[in-house]
Amino acid sequence: MPFQTIKGFRDFFPEDCALRNYIFERWRTSAAGHGFVEYEGPALESTDLFRKKSGDEIVHQLFCFTTKGDEEVSLRPEVTPSLARMAAARQRHYSKPLKWFQIGPCYRYERQQRGRLREFHQYNVDIIGEASPAADAELIATAIASLRTFGLTKDDFAIRLSDRQLWTQFQSQAGIAVERAGEFLQVIDKMERAAPEATDEKLKALGTSLDAVQAFIASVNENHPVFAAIRNSLAARGLWEFVKVDPGIVRGLAYYTGVVFEAFDLKHGLRAIAGGGRYDNLVSLLSDGDTDMPACGFAMGDVVLGELIKETPVAQKAVDEWMKRNGALDVFVVVADEARRHEALGILQQLRDAGWRADYPLTPQKMGKQFQHAEGAKARFAVIVGTEFPTLVIKNLATRDQMEVPADGLRARLAELFAASEYKNLIA
Amino acid sequence: MPFQTIKGFRDFFPEDCALRNYIFERWRTSAAGHGFVEYEGPALESTDLFRKKSGDEIVHQLFCFTTKGDEEVSLRPEVTPSLARMAAARQRHYSKPLKWFQIGPCYRYERQQRGRLREFHQYNVDIIGEASPAADAELIATAIASLRTFGLTKDDFAIRLSDRQLWTQFQSQAGIAVERAGEFLQVIDKMERAAPEATDEKLKALGTSLDAVQAFIASVNENHPVFAAIRNSLAARGLWEFVKVDPGIVRGLAYYTGVVFEAFDLKHGLRAIAGGGRYDNLVSLLSDGDTDMPACGFAMGDVVLGELIKETPVAQKAVDEWMKRNGALDVFVVVADEARRHEALGILQQLRDAGWRADYPLTPQKMGKQFQHAEGAKARFAVIVGTEFPTLVIKNLATRDQMEVPADGLRARLAELFAASEYKNLIA
Predict the structure, then answer these.
(1) Residue A428 pLDDT > 60
(2) Which of A5, A20, A334, A341 would best serve as a mutation to test chain B binding (most B beta carbons within 10 A)?
(3) CA-based nearest residue in chain B for residue A135
(4) Do B352 and A44 touch (CB under 8 A)?
(5) Closest in A14, A43, A355 to B37, CB measured
(6) By the 8 A CB rule, do A208 and A199 touch?
(7) Residue of A nearest to B290 (CA)
């Protein structure tokens, strides 16, 4: 029985890795385009860090273990605790607010299902040190841009926007005890997928009812004052049309304190593509009160987004175009005469030194095989080195045009050909 | 006591992350430039995979544990076993040889010392399915290019080249038992750092002596036939001058079968920067003989390379230049009149949609503070939105030149300014 990946983990064969790199590159460009700078934390952290943030319950979902040095550690299930730790540690070092993003793997020990894996990649975008709703708006604008960059439009996705404060207000009016707030929010969070009778029963046990909750939800629309500042800011950017106010969104995680939102697809019924919100108490909690900084952020995973891209023709076409530009060889050096292999290697080196992606046959091969190899690697040009050396032949593998060129004129001629071709020349 | 990273793990604050990204980008460009395609495996694999490759001893150096589902797993200490597993699984899917590279984290539970961490990044470059020395030469050429791309020259590093076959031959002549070959190679591997008397004693116990070994080493030079094909191939590319034949290099790992090499720095006495060689039996071993493919590869870590870059002024200057180009904001939108914040957000969105890196003050700030912010983010231009709107002011933050421009002409004017400026415009 050959070795296999462990459950919930993936191999990225070259075609999978190219899609992953495309997603990373688009995320990185979007975040940097909005003034965020990249950071990264370790994949392994003290288990206590996650326990302190999320309670003992979280341990069931962790890849946690004790090291040979008796440290209790876990593969990170999310990056926010590391971010809060890092921000608190260097809070005097940077001017506020911090606009930081991160891209890297996270790990959850949970049942495998569509859109969920045990090793996945996450894109985290956070603003730390700014309490104003302007920060929430900036974050939502960045989330929208980070989806539009894949060719997704307002027909493909929307941002469902809510605010935990709405529910705090509802709870106080309905007389729900403060210590049962978490329990109450769990019911609201699961409401959409649960049977109405079950939800009503749970709500009654908390001193309210499904009717009361539904009436409250219906009473909150996009004109509610809690959304006014965010709405103004997003409307000024032409982005409010991506947002649907939906008080039913509360997000599962306990630590949110204000605005919460999710990006979800409008056509395929996938899981949420991204989610986030304001978490003003976390930095203080994780630094034992040493550092108090308001914060908000969102995370987007690669798994659901990857599915959405595959389901959306325009988005998939953009992937294919990107792969053509980034995955192709520029030049394949064909050794037409083995007596000229030495010279062919010199040509190859010259092309590589100039910054072109260039390859050649490692061992003697028939011409036909070499051209197959060149086409398999999607090379744009072949440079044929044969008995006529120092005269070479350049062949455009798309158009089949070919032309002779002296070896010492090769580089200049190729540069012209690339400049004239559809894709940009890789030489800086 | 605030939370800290666990021992041997790093936080990448933005300035550290930028250096990491620079290294990754240079590696990626070098490998792709030599016709390699990127893959990635999972960070967690079955512990048996590593045990089968390296023997039970390896377990002491692993972050290994048992999951809640009773799987024995380890954080990967290296990527080659995953690569061999993946190559065997899809061997019919791709034409040979595979030229594959990978960049990602690895984990070793070992004592912390200079140049060694418990979480580090590795760059792996491998050719699978080609037994010819042409593959070894191609690999060495790629290793050289992957160091030169950082501005390192033949005065900064060299490739120490050897071949395990030399020692197989020596052992048979010296009458060392085949089953003690591993033990013998360990002595040779440690010889450079061990006391000569201790080495001599160990060698005598194996039936030879330090004198005999030293005489053998002295007898092998770059004209030895075992290096002829590699030498021809590298000389044809002008790269032989980077190579020093040194039979003393045997590499610690048991699985090498032929050529072995290390890249080491010439000025600072650091640990090896990269190492690799031929491992023709590994794919067969890990696939229980199902798939037999010759292979060779090298790995380079980010820790020693990072130190070498910092020690080498030309290399550090290249990092600084790259950071200036890639880490800077293009435009900072200054809100000179709060009554025009709405319009400023529209301008901001227009700039971001056009692909520029643009930022703005989230909350009302004095002009001076805004310009400080812009300069802190190394913005190249400020666009000032004030009472004169729709007339804007563009200010070049390097030269302090400023000019008025109507809002509807901003994009075109900025595009001209970027085209004329030192760094390339980010718009495609």
Answers:
(1) no
(2) A5
(3) B362
(4) no
(5) A14
(6) no
(7) A2
Q: What is the CA radius of gyration of chain A?
A: 28
Task: Name the β-bridge partners of B100.
Answer: B37, B126
B46, A138: Cβ pair inside 8 Å? no
pTM exceeds 0.80: yes
Phi-psi region of B38 (alpha: psi -120 to 50; beta: other; left: phi over 0): beta
CB-CB under 8 Å, B71 with A6: yes
Cα–Cα distance measured from residue A258 to residue A171, given in angstroms and rounded to the nearest whole number: 15
Enter the CATH code of domain B329-420. 3.40.50.800
Interface mutation vs chain A, best among B362, B370, B381, B383, most A CBs within 10 Å: B362
Q: How large is the ipTM?
A: 0.95
A233 and B345 in contact by Cβ < 8 A?
A: yes
Q: Are A401 and A389 in contact (CB under 8 A)?
A: no
Question: A313: buried, middle or exposed (CB in 10 Å: 19+, 13-18, 0-12)?
Answer: exposed
A114 three-state secondary structure: coil
Q: How many CB atoms lie within 10 A of CB A116?
A: 15
Task: Enumerate the residues of chain A whose CB falls inside 8 A of the CB of residue B100.
Answer: 14
d(CA A95, CA B143): 40
Using pLDDT thresholds of 50, 70 and 90, give the confidence band for residue A222.
very high
- Tens digits of pLDDT across chain B (428 residues): 689 999 999 999 999 999 999 999 999 999 999 999 999 999 999 999 999 988 888 899 999 999 999 999 999 999 999 999 999 999 899 999 999 999 999 999 987 777 789 999 999 999 999 999 999 999 999 999 999 999 999 999 999 999 999 999 999 999 998 888 888 988 998 898 899 999 999 999 999 999 999 999 999 999 999 999 999 999 999 999 999 999 999 887 678 999 999 999 999 989 899 999 999 999 999 998 889 999 999 999 999 999 999 999 999 999 999 998 888 999 999 999 999 999 999 999 999 999 999 999 999 999 999 999 999 999 999 999 999 999 999 999 999 999 999 999 999 999 999 888 754 433 33
**Contact state of A3 with B97 under an 8 Å Cβ cutoff:** no
Strand partners, A125: A101, A298
- Residue A253: per-residue pLDDT: 65
- Which residues in A lie closer than 8 A to residue B65 (C-beta atoms)? 63, 65-66
Return the residue matching tokens 């690339």: A418
CA-nearest residue of chain B to A134?
B362
Task: Write the residue in A67, A88, A424 that is nearest to B63 by C-beta.
Answer: A67
C-alpha A89/C-alpha A84 separation (Å) is: 9
Chain A nearest C-alpha distance from B345 (Å): 6
Partners of residue A69 in chain B, C-beta under 8 Å: 7, 109
Closest approach of chain A CAs to the CA of B218, in angstroms?
A: 30
CB A272 within 8 A of CB A171: no
Could you tell me the residue ranges of all domains in chain B?
14-41+79-321, 329-420
Check CB contact under 8 Å for B286 and A358.
no
How far is CA A123 from each of CA A23, A116, A253, B340, rounded to the nearest angstrom? 10, 15, 17, 33
What residue of A is the nearest CA neighbor of B423? A428
In this structure, how many other beta carbons lie within 10 angstroms of the beta carbon of residue A175?
Answer: 9
Torsion of CA A96, B11, A147, B423, to 10 degrees: 70
Residue A9, min C-alpha distance to chain B (Å)? 6
Q: Does domain B14-41+79-321 have CATH number 2.30.30.220?
A: no
Q: Give yes or no for residue A56 having a pLDDT over 90.
A: no
Q: How many CB pairs under 8 A join A and B?
A: 242
B14-41+79-321 and B329-420 share one CATH topology?
Answer: no
Give me the helices (H) in B34-76, please: 47-54
